[in-house]
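Dear H.,

Thanks for agreeing to be a second pair of eyes. The structure we're designing against is below in token form, covering all 462 positions.
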């Protein structure tokens, strides 16, 4: 049996930053990073290359592999403690703020751009906040450093090269089947092909794509967990000119809204100025996301509107619920469905001819024109429509018949394990980090969660 000081499950930002912190703070540790996806240089999406529907690859190259889902994302690093997850509930304010800055400094070391959006034109941003308030929304100040798809991959490749030079072992295309425990302490992992790997410390950072696996392992090991809200919604695409008064000031407008009918919470997520809509494959389910590239622009801007719903007893399977909603879209459209807002409001499905007549040209050519009202629950759909109307008061043109709706978008991070302030589970030396653990919701906090764990393991190894 091969033995390591630390095994990290998941090569996304949480896993990478855990390893970075370990090699910088403690020399000589035997560290292994495992990921079920492919190495970064081999991560290619055949459907995007061939402009074809999703091929249903066993491991989706868009969200699995070295760099995690962040490798192909547009790489937005929040420079704020107000967005990006729940890590603030484990840290005091000063520690959290210093941690955010620390993470940004490391990204800068590996080539991130210095510009941070949202720190200038503060008077205009305040006026935008007032307009949002009058429309019944809250605009959260959320400065952001934009890496850009393309540049993000270069940064992540630089991090891998550095870790390899420091002696860290990396095994991609290697799924972990189970976490091994003895006498209340973690002792290693078993891979899907039956290989047993021993380690004093195990860090589980499987990302959103591995959230369900982590839930299953937590149940098997008897670990307590809380149920986070499940986020389900649509991705909105419209002319970039409509959104410029928001994106030119903040790059990513973080709007929060409570729907008047059902009082459900709705929020914007992952705004991509001059970007494109893309597909993701999570365990065979095709969902939608968005990117902005560092080296070229489209004429459109896209963003998600997500409805958060917290389930009560006895239901404890929000991830399963989210997958069920996604499966309806896959069943009806063979993948992602696109619909014009005007067609939706007229109670009819969109067709290829109706989409072609619209003023917004879809960037996701593989999406199937259809009827999203057959997919989302009524209260989710109504909440999204109500927020689109509110946003139209801030940026007229959002609630336009030409606006495109893509569905569905689901965030699979709905279960959060009970952990200590150092993100250690109830099992000794077993830590969890990142979006897959339900602790974070974005690159910055995911990276910081990994760094916190790396620092703790390094201290224990001294």
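And this is the sequence the design step returned. I haven't edited it by hand at all.
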């Amino acid at each position: 049996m091969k033995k390591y000081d630390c095994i990290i499950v998941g090569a996304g930002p949480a896993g990478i930053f855990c390893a970075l912190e370990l090699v910088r703070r403690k020399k000589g540790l035997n560290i292994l990073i495992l990921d079920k996806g492919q190495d970064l240089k081999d991560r290619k999406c055949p459907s995007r290359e061939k402009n074809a529907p999703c091929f249903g690859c066993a491991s989706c190259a868009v969200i699995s592999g070295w760099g995690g889902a962040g490798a192909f994302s547009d790489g937005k690093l929040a420079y704020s403690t107000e967005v990006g997850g729940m890590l603030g509930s484990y840290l005091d304010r000063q520690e959290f703020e210093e941690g955010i800055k620390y993470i940004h400094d490391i990204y800068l070391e590996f080539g991130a751009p210095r510009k941070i959006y949202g720190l200038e034109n503060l008077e205009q941003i305040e006026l935008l906040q007032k307009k949002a308030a009058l429309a019944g929304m809250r605009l959260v100040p959320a400065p952001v450093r934009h890496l850009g798809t393309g540049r993000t991959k270069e940064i992540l490749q630089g991090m891998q090269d550095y870790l390899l030079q420091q002696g860290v072992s990396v095994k991609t295309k290697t799924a972990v089947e189970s976490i091994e425990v003895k006498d209340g302490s973690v002792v290693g992992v078993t891979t899907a092909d039956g290989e047993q790997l021993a380690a004093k410390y195990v860090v589980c950072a499987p990302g959103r794509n591995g959230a369900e696996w982590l839930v299953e392992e937590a149940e098997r090991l008897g670990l307590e967990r809380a149920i986070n809200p499940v986020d389900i919604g649509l991705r909105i695409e419209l002319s970039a000119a409509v959104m410029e008064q928001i994106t030119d000031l903040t790059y990513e407008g973080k709007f929060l809204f409570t729907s008047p009918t059902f009082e459900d919470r709705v929020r914007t997520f992952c705004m991509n100025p001059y970007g494109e809509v893309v597909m993701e494959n999570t365990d065979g389910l095709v969902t939608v996301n968005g990117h902005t590239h560092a080296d070229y622009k489209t004429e459109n801007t896209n963003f998600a509107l997500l409805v958060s719903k917290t389930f009560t007893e006895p239901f404890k399977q929000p991830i399963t619920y989210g997958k069920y909603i996604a499966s309806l879209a896959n069943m009806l459209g063979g993948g992602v469905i696109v619909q014009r807002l005007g067609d939706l409001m007229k109670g009819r499905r969109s067709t290829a001819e109706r989409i072609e007549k619209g003023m917004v040209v879809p960037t996701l050519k593989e999406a199937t024109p259809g009827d999203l009202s057959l997919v989302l629950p009524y209260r989710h759909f109504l909440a999204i429509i109500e927020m689109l109307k509110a946003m139209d008061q801030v940026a007229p043109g959002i609630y336009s018949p030409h606006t495109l709706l893509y569905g569905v978008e689901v965030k699979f991070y709905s279960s959060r394990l009970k952990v200590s302030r150092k993100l250690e589970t109830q099992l000794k030396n077993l830590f969890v980090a990142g979006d897959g653990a339900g602790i974070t919701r974005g690159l910055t906090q995911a990276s910081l969660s990994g760094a916190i764990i790396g620092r703790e393991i390094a201290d224990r190894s001294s």
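Two observations from my side: The mean pLDDT is 93. Residues 154 and 322 are 32 Å apart (CA to CA).

Warmly,
E.
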